[in-house]
Amino acid sequence: MVEVNWAGNYRYGTTRVAAPESVDELQELIARESSVKALGTRHSFTGVADTDGVLITTGELGGVAAVDHDSMTATVPGGWSYGRVAAFLEREGVALRNMGSLPHISLAGGTATGTHGSGDDNQILAAEISGLELVRADGSLCSVERSNEDLSAMAVGLGMFGIITLVTLDVVPTYRVRQDLYSGASWATVLHNLDEIMASAYSVNLHADFSSSATRTIWQKTRVEVDGDGQAIPPTVPDERWGATRRDIYEIDPGRTTRLAPSGPWCDRLPHFVEGGAPSVGGDELQSEYFVDRVHGADALAALLDMGGRIDPHLHGAEIRTVKADDLWLSPTVGRDCLAIGFTWKKHPEQVRALLPDIEAALEPFGPTAHWGKLFSFDADQLFAQFGRMGEFLALAHEWDPQGKFSHSANPLSALG
């Protein structure tokens, strides 16, 4: 019986959980129920995946995975975890451009909430979607391709259009990645060199808190070139950068986190954690994440440093990444390159809830948007102001689901419809 999310901070509005084993069974279930929602892997911290009807898990749904090497696309079940998708693609000699920190999350759930990885030239994960197959509110099965503008709304759809069965993704030839960690860079140096630091590798993650004079780590993930025999060409990696020292061995849990040097397959290096181990701090946490215009990144971080004494008593740590602009209607990075500032909070719900409006006010000059599956306090007016196509999104969702079968009062958009 599933009653709470992964972190245990959210209790679902139902104890009815179904795990259909075929698309036909899924269609029949959706057609006969008045309220349903895809559950995913429960890694959201909000009611985005809630219902008072039936929660539906699709991990057992099955479906054929295939790669089209001519079009460089792959079609895989939406209920698969990113780790499972990545392992399948690697066996086929292809890869995703990017992955998030956690390979545990489901493909459909991760894309539907705007999850992302890191990198100046890497968009959110949903931007790789070139097609969806999903079951609508009436139980019918349909496909939406990239040629249909609706896909730009549905790719980050918050589960409001139907339950996704298959996802078609753009893929690239497989590649190798090396990870390096630098520790001890001062905040002053980081702010002065922020653009250079975040552009220093294919994917860069800055870990920190906001009341220390120095950051914790700069985590670089570098694509490694190979020679004519397919052997990795070792990159030149300096021992010191920006006043920080490279760590050959870092005090992180090797049973949970992906390996550092030497290089390895993209699927074993782009995520921070291994699928078989507990992610993050094992769910004993809350999370928030805000995206600000990249050109204002250093100023936004400086504003948070001014609040460090209030933030850090409730913080496990912050993770700072960059994300390239896209054109998806409800993407937090729609139309602009962004700096993403993620907060992994201690499980202090009242204190965090009280802090969020002040953090949002501090970031307001820099145009903040939020991750849909994490905690925020923006109201309806603010959400409409942040997303210029919000009205069109809600109208399209109503067209696909006129009875609101996939909606719920706890959904972040419930007050907007």
Detail the poorly predicted runs: none
Number of helices in the DSSP assignment: 11
Number of strands: 20
Anisotropy-based shape: globular
> Helix proportion of residues, in percent?
10-25%
Structural class call reads alpha+beta
| The CATH topology of the largest domain | Alpha-Beta Plaits
Based on CA atoms alone, the radius of gyration comes out at 21 Å
Major sheet attributes: 10 strands, antiparallel
CATH architecture identity of the largest domain = 2-Layer Sandwich
* Measured distance between first and last alpha carbons: 31 Å
Mean pLDDT: 94
- Strand fraction equals 15-25%
| Tally of individual domains | 2
Which key terms come to mind for this protein?
Uridine Diphospho-n-acetylenolpyruvylglucosamine Reductase, domain 3, alpha+beta, ten-stranded antiparallel sheet, 417 residues, globular, 2 domains, Alpha-Beta Plaits, single chain, five-stranded antiparallel sheet
